[in-house]
Amino acid sequence: MKLSHLKEQLGKKPEANLRFRLPSGQTIPDHAHVTEVALINKRFVDCGGTLRSDTCCRLQTWVANDLHHRLTAAKLLKILDKAVSFLGSADLEVDVEHEVGYISQFPLKNAELTPEGFLLSLGTRHTACLAPEKCLPPPRAVSDFNPMKFVFHHPNHVPPSSGTPAPTG
To answer: Less crowded by CB within 10 Å, the N or C end of the chain?
Structure first.
C-alpha cells in the first residue's frame, strides 16, 4: 500500500484505534507503539550484476508493558506528518517492521475500517532470483514428442514412392 493511500484512509476516522494483523491472521497486541517511521533506500547488485534500488517507508512497531496504550489514526498521521521532510514522496510503499521472535518486515496490504477501528493487514515478502536468465540453468526444451505421429511400417512394406516391390520371402 502506498503511503498516500494509508494517510487518506487514516484521515477518514482520526479517532479510530489501529490494530495490525500479521499474515498468519494473528494480531499484534492492541497496545503496540509505532516507534519509528523510516525512509529505507536499499541499493544492491543482484546475482546477475545489475545495480538496483528499492525504496519504502517503514513503520516499526514495538510492544511494551503499558497495556492501556492505544495508537489512533490521528496519532499515526501526526508521526507521518513529521516524517514528510525526509520521506520526500507519498508515493512510497509502506512496510511494517515487527518482532515475531525475530525482526521481520511485512508489506502493508490493506487498511480497513472496522467497528473496532482500523485493521492494518500485513502481507508476506519472499526472496527471488532477479536475474534467472544469468543464474539459473536454462529451461528444459519442451518436447513435441507425440506417439500418435509415428507411422509404423511392416518390415516388408515398400513406401509407395519408391516403386520397388517389397521382397517376398
So the answer is: C
Which of these, 83, 103, 111, 106, lies nearest to 95 by C-alpha position?
106
Q: How far apart are CA 57 and CA 16, in angstroms?
A: 22
Cell of 18: 489501529
Local mean pLDDT, 10-residue blocks, the chain (169 residues)? 97 96 95 96 94 97 91 96 94 96 95 95 94 82 68 65 58
For residue 18, being part of any structural domain is answered with: yes
- Asked whether residue 141 is domain-assigned, the answer is no
Distances (CA, A) of 150 to 144, 145, 147, 153, 154: 12, 10, 6, 10, 13
Give the Cβ contact number of residue 67 at 10 Å: 10
Domain residue limits at 72: 3-127
Domain annotation covers residue 98: yes
What single-letter DSSP state applies at residue 53?
Answer: E
Q: What share of the chain is helix, strand, coil (3-state, %, to 5)?
A: 20, 35, 45
Helix (H, G, I), strand (E, B) or coil at 131: coil
> For residues 7 and 14, is the Cβ–Cβ distance under 8 A?
no
Total domain count for the chain? 1
